Amino acid sequence: MHPPTIAGNIRFEREKFTLRTFYYVRYRTEAPGLFAESCSHNHGHIHMDINVLLVAADPGDVRAVEAALSRGGDVSFRLRCVSQLPQDLESLGDGGTTVVLLDLHLPDVKGIGALDRLLAAAPQVPVLVFCGAGDEDLARQAVRRGAQDYLLKTHLDSYSLPRALRNVIDRSAAEEALFLERERAQVTLDSIGDAVVTTDIAGKVTYLNSVAEKMSGWLRKDARGRPFGEVIRIVDATTGASPTRNPMARAIEQDQSVGLAANSVLVRRDGVEYAIEDSAAPIHGRNGRVIGAVIVFHDASESHAVKARMSHLAQYDFLTDLPNPVLLNDRMTQAIALARRHKKQLAVLFIDLDDFKRINDTLGHAAGDKVLQSVALRLKACVRDSDTVSRRGGDEFVILLSEISRGEDAAHGADKLIAAVGAAHAAAGQELLVTASIGISIYPLDGADAESLVKCADAAMYQAKTGGGNQYRFFGQGTNPGAAGQRPPPNQNRPAG
What we know:
It is built from 14 helices and 23 strands. It is an alpha+beta fold. The protein has three domains: 11-182, 3-Layer(aba) Sandwich (Rossmann fold); 194-304, Beta-Lactamase (2-Layer Sandwich), CATH 3.30.450; 316-495, Reverse transcriptase/Diguanylate cyclase domain (Alpha-Beta Plaits, 2-Layer Sandwich). Strands 9, 10, 11, 12, 13, 14 and 15 form a seven-stranded antiparallel sheet that branches. It is rod-shaped, with a radius of gyration of 43 Å. The termini are far apart. Residues 1-47 and 477-497 have low confidence and may be disordered.
């Protein structure tokens, strides 16, 4: 098979077979001064052309190499000989040279210097060095510096040299393929939005991607080899305690994927916390045995905040941020169970603002909302932390007074509430006066469940309103200690200031 002819100096990359494995060969189109490598198939055998650049000053070495490569079998070695390093070393990487065969003793460059220059100019071209029997230490040093392998001059024969060149090409291609694969994996892992951390079987960190570096506060080079729990510190958001077994250890121990515990928080190295979600899984070797684990997680702080906000909106009034009827009912159910257990009483106060529609109609709903927010703050200030102030809707509020000793406690609380609501409220550039009518029901006298108690308090509030407003009433004549002292309803609003 031959590379197609296309106008211009276009490089093609194709897989080319050696006698054993794959490697990549760069093809160039036919053009003056350019060399095209080829691979042909003949009678079931693969034929290769390998372009070898021999850099050697000793004529005897040159003759030995020429003789050794003249009988390449299924491989044709195209040999180009130079006595010193070419001036245009960078051109070696253009595809015309498959491998460099380098004598470590050149007249113009001694020792490893020639190799260093070659690798700096064309690092993608594999180099096989050769030397005399007394220079093996130098040759081994060359391998450590980047040469693929070395060969003694006594082995420049038709068997050893072609074999060594093929091995060098194969190894270089395999290393290049592995490097590219790792680069692709690294780019992929760094481009995703999730953090990725891997450990060995002992739980020591072997890898972090860039997101994991940012979220943990550890650089990859500093984290490598450290225990997972030191680098990735996961705690419970509620208790602040670390799990007894981290997810990586559980994934390795159970040999299966495991999810992170609910409310998991990652504590960064500098103390910043992230709510995190996702899972850990074991990593298996070729024999199927567990050799480590990988955890993939992402910053869930924003989604947690959204969930918390949605949960809050489902239970609290959007205008006053007071508990809504759903949350009030839940708290009343719990309070009733507690009062029943401890043989205590509790009170429910139903509050309705008198003639509140007048404010909305004359000053607008924005002013009305300001007054409602002001009333909400004053109601909360009049009760204990263990009590609940809720907005039922419109200008109606319901208050749960938990564990009162007697009905008079509720009456005293109602007096405070009426006085607090009756003070002027600043809105629309004015000081607005409003009053409140309050109905009171008592557990267990007026009801044994939340719904009954609210209905009774609502009925009592209606009685207070029909009696002129600005007062409270208990539900039922037998438990009504009387109405509170009434304030005169406001006839006008006073300008602010």
